[in-house]
Design brief:
Helices cover about 30% and strands about 20% of the residues. By secondary structure, it is α/β, with parallel strands linked by helices. The strands form five sheets. It has a six-stranded mixed beta sheet. Strands 12-11-13-14-10-15 form a six-stranded parallel beta sheet. Strands 18-23-22-19-21-20 form a six-stranded parallel beta sheet, with helices on one face.
């Protein structure tokens, strides 16, 4: 079965009858290595072909679908057609000419990339794979087509007719009709990196920034990079298929949850009238998400805050009063949340303020917070997205108990998704991290309204084995880390690709002092801006590193003994810290 993006269930309401039938036939009658995009903006000019159909063995097709009946066509030539409609005669561009223009838009885009073209000989500069275009006449049979002079202006081999796309049509015959629109058959399939390059060019919105860029999505690039990063197909299909209503995504560390949230926020900002609210728990992740939205010119439309920042802003905006200062931060924050809940219940602070609410790190939100956030969604749009990974829950886990989303006003039954594949970490890093937290990662089932615990599956990417270094003192650990980071920088790793993640102040203070004494540029977590010019090593606590990733991660103080009652908590924190490393992990203790 082919992959349709978006999923048909989320786009069927905007499809014509012919488009629905074609989508189902393409899904059912093509093999699983076929990819189909329906009405997805394409290239920098955002053109909208009806269907883009791609196969690494066969090539790329652009298809336009028309639900015309034969008697509605009054006049047609190669460039235009006159149709009899309920509102009289209407002149429009010929669908074949429209498909041809879209196809050439694709080809001109892809031919810029030397890794997608033939680099020598008579065909130098042409694409490595065949491409073509055609039209689908959803309500005209082949017999009707042949009985007219349509074939004089529409090449018959570029047409798929009504009877050739019926449910009863033979698979081979259906496929042959599509292949007939291509000039030749490629015998050697394209490799996965080449497929990713094609997607990178055609769909700029799924590009992922390199870790050194500090944002979620790649900025517009003047030059085509040698290595491109894009959402994987499951992530892209999910991001494009979220649709309306309340949604919950359960995903393991490194499965791209935050990436999907960023895509969703950008999409909603283009179609919503009121602001979109993005909430997360830790301040560092909020900064990163905020910078991504600002870089896309969406800072005025997408509000990114930690939950407690948002609470404070709401209390001030509606004169609901902040609690008295309290040295006990937890008590202060608790009272602040209680006040806003009471103010919303009393209609002092209005509900439904935002056209969409998106929650990252939902596993760190207390149930009352999730309930409050759900109340902030405009009932007219009813757009709520919660991202969740119970394995990364490091705040108040024991006090939360069994969670029911429905009891919190989150109506996500039938609209939950589980992401099991970890794309961030190499298999070597993931195996070590999973081994540390093995008892905490045993999969547990849940009903659809609950929270399952999902064990990560490696995407199979390999890298160097993590370094596990045992040293007698924290100062020697700090010296070792400083030396390792300097050596990595000498061999080409930018400072911004590195992070040091520590457990608490007693560990962090001597390590930070040693790095600075060694001349290593370091930015402490409260000062991180994620600006491009910030070519520094990031210095973060384990609590503040979630949602972030770096090619090289060093973790000091990992060998400390802890009380038996805290072993699970410490293992969970170490798991979170280790899974920040995309390539190289150094653990000392």
């Amino acid at each position: 079965m082919a992959t349709l993006i978006p999923a048909i269930g989320t786009c069927v309401s905007r499809m014509t009858g012919g488009e629905k039938r074609l989508a189902r036939r393409l899904e059912d009658k093509l093999e699983e290595d076929w990819l189909i995009w329906y009405d997805v903006p394409l290239g920098p000019r955002n053109v909208h072909p009806d269907f883009v159909v791609f196969n690494p063995r066969r090539g790329l097709l652009v298809l336009e679908v028309k639900d015309w009946r034969l008697d509605s066509i009054q006049e047609i030539d190669r460039q235009s057609v006159s149709l009899l409609t309920a509102n009289g005669l209407k002149r429009q561009v010929s669908p074949l000419e429209q498909a041809r223009q879209y196809a050439h838009e694709v080809v001109d885009l892809l031919k810029r990339d030397p890794q997608l073209t033939i680099n020598s000989g008579r065909l130098q500069g042409t694409l490595l794979f065949p491409w073509g275009y055609g039209i689908v006449l959803a309500n005209i049979s082949r017999k009707q087509f042949d009985s007219t002079n349509l074939g004089e202006v529409i090449e018959p081999h570029r047409v798929l007719c009504q009877d050739e796309m019926s449910e009863a049509a033979e698979v081979e015959a259906f496929q042959e009709r599509l292949w007939g629109m291509l000039p030749f058959t490629r015998s050697v399939p394209l490799a996965l990196p080449q497929i990713d390059r094609i997607r990178w060019h055609l769909f700029p919105e799924i590009r992922i920034a390199a870790p050194s860029q500090n944002g979620l999505f790649a900025e517009d690039e003047l030059e085509i990079p040698d290595i491109v990063r894009v959402m994987d197909l499951q992530q892209e299909q999910l991001a494009r298929s979220l649709g309306e209503g309340h949604r919950v995504i359960h995903g393991v560390a490194g499965s791209g949850k935050t990436l999907i949230l960023g895509y969703r926020a950008e999409h909603l900002a283009k179609v919503c009238a009121r602001p979109i609210l993005v909430l997360c728990y830790n301040q560092t992740l909020a900064k990163r998400l905020g910078r991504t939205m600002a870089s896309k010119g969406l800072a005025d439309k997408v509000v990114v805050q930690t939950f407690h920042q948002w609470c404070r802003a709401q209390l001030l905006a509606y004169n609901a009063g902040l609690p008295a200062s309290n040295e006990d931060k937890n008590a202060f924050f608790g009272e602040m949340v209680d006040r806003i809940i009471r103010a919303v219940d009393a209609n002092i602070i209005p509900a439904g303020q935002y056209d969409a609410v998106l929650i990252d790190e939902g596993h760190d939100f207390q149930p009352a917070w999730l309930k409050l956030a759900a109340q902030m969604v405009n009932p007219a749009t009813n757009s709520l997205l919660v991202l969740y990974d119970d394995a990364q829950s490091i705040y108040g886990r024991d006090q939360r108990g069994k969670l029911s989303f429905k009891s919190l006003g989150i109506q996500a039954q039938g609209r939950t998704t589980i992401l099991k594949i970890n794309y961030r970490n190499t298999q070597e890093v993931l195996e070590l991290a999973s081994g540390i937290a093995s008892e905490l990662l045993k999969p547990t089932a849940s009903d659809e309204d609950g929270v399952p615990l999902v064990a990560p599956i490696s995407a199979g990417r390999h890298g160097p084995k993590p370094l596990l270094i045992k040293l007698p003192s924290i100062q020697e650990e700090a010296d070792y880390i400083a030396k390792h980071l300097k050596e990595a920088h000498k061999t080409g790793t930018p400072w911004s690709d590195m992070a040091v993640i520590y457990r608490d102040y007693g560990i962090g203070k001597p390590v930070l002092a040693t790095l600075r004494k060694a001349g290593i540029p370091v930015t402490y977590q409260d000062d991180i801006t994620f600006a491009e010019k910030e070519d520094t090593v990031k210095f973060l606590t384990m609590h503040s590193c979630k949602g972030l990733e770096f090619p090289l991660v060093a973790i000091p103080g990992a060998g400390r003994t802890v009380d038996d009652g805290r072993k699970d908590e410490e293992a969970r924190l170490l798991y979170v810290a280790m899974t920040r490393a995309t390539r190289e992990l150094v653990v000392v203790g």
